[in-house]
Amino acid sequence: METVVSGIRSTGKLHLGNYYGAVKNFVQMQHDYKCFFFIADYHSLTTHPTPQDLHGNVKQVLVEYLAAGIDPEKSTIYVQSDVPEISELYLYLNMNAYMGELQRSTSFKDKVRAHPDNVNAGLLTYPVLMAADILIHKATKVPVGKDQEQHLEMARTFGNRFNTLYKTAYFPEPYAFNFTKKLVKIPGLDGKGKMGKSEGEANAVYLSDEPEVIRKKVMRAVTDSGPTEENQPKPDAIQNLFDLMKVVSSADTYEHFEDLYSKCQIRYGDFKKQLGEDMIIATAPMREKINEISNNEPYLRKIAHYGALKAHESAAKTMKEIREIIGFRSF
Length: 331
Ligand code: TRP
Prior knowledge:
By secondary structure, this protein is mostly helical. The protein is built from 14 helices and five strands. The protein starts with a strand and ends in a 5-residue tail after the last helix.
């Protein structure tokens, strides 16, 4: 069975866009692959060397991914810093990662622009750490967005270089796994871009939002004065709400409102009310699970320890072999 690895950044609460765009696919992949999902807390230090609440951020990611359906029995879900073998592989890979190639990475250049006062070596070698995350489990599939393609190419370069240098076929090539053949579009509620893209909480519906909050956000979503001609095309803001309805509501409901729109009979109040209620239903199991496990420290501890154990087992095996290949031997 092929191995999958993906790193999860802790960039805030999960919203519907994260869920339908990525996390739901992770959940489905669990059935078909050997999956490792980890919380990338080492990586967070490259831009935030002294995080306010590192543990709290990690915990939030863990809780929300479990609530979204990552099954700790099927997958290995773990915290990166619980598996220090990753940093050992990172060290070895760094010896054969060159300044020039690292400086040419677009994400490095972007980060230099964004944080000119903190251009540290960890930032430069971010792709090496990411390669270590993947190669440590000899993964071949990495479910990530388009923005990570270059990092995957670098991971292949580092793995292949290791193979060439030590005359071995040890590391397989990892490729970005694009699950979005039919792209699910999750727009925000502000009539503009993608959910979560613009500032402000009101644009996104979070998995942890209480029903009352979801209702309010959806009722405040941008609309217009309504269609005046039969079958007229929808302006962006309206199309966005229909796109959201397509994801959370039944096909019947969606068609019902489509029909009303094309006949110029739609009442946005009813439309948004339905959309809000369907969002509440779609998120209910996850919201309940978030509330149920957030304060269950013993449960979270058990899950984190179990994940660390499984990840460590896989990582330790790789590191033992890598040490032998390079030639480290203990007396
Ligand atoms: N760089 C990835 C991101 O920004 C996160 C990440 C770190 C990752 N290590 C990884 C993703 C390993 C996949 C595999 O989203």
